[in-house]
Amino acid sequence: MEFLGLYHYLVFPLLLMSGIYAIIAKRNLVKKLIGLSLMQSAVFLLYITMSKVEGGTGPILKPDATDVIYSNPLPEVLILTAIVVGISTAALGLGIIVRIKEEFGSVEEDVIRELGGR
Amino acid sequence: MTEIFSAFLLTLLVITAMAVVKSRNLFVAVMLTGIFSLLIAINFFLLDAADVALTEAAVGAGVATVFFLSALALTSEEERSRSAYRTIGIAVFITITIVLGYATLGMPSYGDPEAPVHVHVAPWYMEKTPEYIDIPNVVTAVLGSFRGYDTLGEVFVVFTAGIGVLFILGVRPPSKTRGAAPVASDEAGLRHYLIPKVVVRLFIPFVLLFGLYVQFHGEYSPGGGFQAGAIIAASIILYALLEGEERAMQVIPRRVLNGLIAGGALLYGAVGLAGIVAGGSFLDYSVLGSDPVKGQQMGLLVIEAGVGITVTGVLVSIFHAFAARERV
Question: Where are the alpha helices (DSSP H) in chain A?
């Protein structure tokens, strides 16, 4: 169990940094947006990891059982709404990218910069 | 056994994330993000978060993939320019991974019931939910009632994002392809292919039914407005993919979609105001029914419906906004 916990906590920075790497190093705007959603998923994973209680079960109460351990519902509530908000804002970003493509004819950062005269 | 499976999934997650970043073909990258979402959803489920897993599977693996693909259809599938700032990127990657990895050693150990997050307000919610609201799913209770303000805010964020996409893509594209003949509505979609036709037609009613079940059974099992909205939107998008954009627009016209987007959010707000009118405070459902517990349940049902309506409307509208656009 201890090993698994450490592994969970190690996966979080790896995923987060994969996203950040895509944002820094890639010039394609769609790829940058994918990187952003990777980062977002990494944070979701960290939150949900913290909600787990050892030997616990999902926070849906069982009427007759008395000695059941439940995991923490709070992080789940936060992340549940964040996922749907995340896709809506990603769609907003995609909309902006589509408009950029229509105006500049490209979604590559360097091409757009040249066309913008900077 | 679960531990091994969990570790295996996490390893796959990291590999998929790296492959997403590495792949130069964006179509491949988007498909891989779909797989990534599915894997992380299974992982959420193993971590006891069934509600979150349901949402992630419906949104991340389903709707998000469609959005990204339709945006790719309007831009380009290949990443043209080479990566820049590679060394800086790798340096940042390694440094921050080490720092964060080191920092996580100070985190409370995994599954520890005495961790700060489990001893603060969470026990209160677990204890008081049966007394105040009397529904089994604590996640729904916290989402809709104890933290109703937060959820109202989230719904309005979704609402605003939807309006934003409609505004941004409401602009006419610069007309280079005006002369191009529009695709005849008989030829649009996937109707000519036998397997998608049979399978999708068979699926849609069941997906819709499942969406409604998730919506209205959300108090008793994993589910609720956010998940149901995503699932119902996915079934409508599936229909649009099969029958073509225009047919789908005839089934649920623009006007209705706009009504759904605004209506759901307003319904949520109206429940809050009804609380004030009935003599309580904003978003206090206890005063809505004959006794406080019934009022809470009533309020939850209505606001979940509001959430579901807005999420469905926004996701379907966003899909139409992308799909109706011609490539320049």
Answer: 2-25, 29-51, 73-104, 109-116
